Each structure stands twice: as structure tokens, then as C-alpha cells.
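Hi team,

Below is the intake form for DUF4174 domain-containing protein from Teichococcus globiformis. Please confirm the fields before the structure is written into the shared record.

FORM ID: S-0412
PROTEIN: DUF4174 domain-containing protein
ORGANISM: Teichococcus globiformis
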Amino acid sequence: MGGRLTRRAIAALAMAPGAALGGDLAPYHWKSRVLLVFAEEDAPALRDQHRRIMAARGGMAERDMAVIAVVGAQRVEHWLGAPGQEDAAALRARFAVPPSGFAAILLGKDGGEKWRVDRPADPEEVFALVDTMPMRRREAGQG
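The structure came back. Fields below:
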């Protein structure tokens, strides 16, 4: 065998917690929690989500959060956090979100999907969830 990976080993690595942040999202792994927002171009829900996120910027920064919007089939916007090189189609495929409709997906620093809704995410709801995570509790000196 030597240094070669078997199909079983490759499959196990793909299912590891950090696998969700592979590829385009790798720069965020173990550094940021990522809120992905998927929406159609002129959707009222997209505008509502953007307004909510911008109003909660301080809380997002305190929790090491990046917010990436995938708009339509082609466009990626970085609302909070450092810009990256994400591909809209690849993110839609990876998270199984069609070009129509709406989804907000929270990824932990480990890359695992922690929460998903089909409506604009309420930042207070996101904060409450993040604040229960063991890593966040350690960051805040609570555990």
C-alpha cells in the first residue's frame, strides 16, 4: 500500500467534519464560522437577510463569523469577512441548493453544517446556537 489512499480512506476523509470547508471554503476552516445565504437575484428575502446581517455586524465579528451570499446561479458576495474565490455553482451543488428559492446555512469552524433554514436567518437565533457550541464556549471563557 505505501502512501496510496484506498477508496475507503478517501471516502472517510470526504465525510470528515472539515470536508464541508474543502475547496473554495478552505481558507475559513478553523478560523471562521460561515453563514452561507443562497437566494435569487431580486428576492425580497435576500434584501431582508442583508439588512439583518448588517445590523448585527458586531455580534457576527465577536463570534468569528463570515457571511457569504450566493446570488442567482453565478454571483458570490462577501457581506462579512475576507473575500475569497468561491464559485457559486460549486457551492450550490455542494450544499444541494437550487438556483431558485432561499436557504441560510451555518457552518462551524470545523466545517460541519450546524443549521439550515429556508427563510432569512435571525441573527439572534444564530448567535444563540453559536453560543452553545463547545468551541465558542471555550473562546468566551465559559468552558
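SUMMARY LINE: The two ends are 42 Å apart (CA to CA).

Thanks, M.
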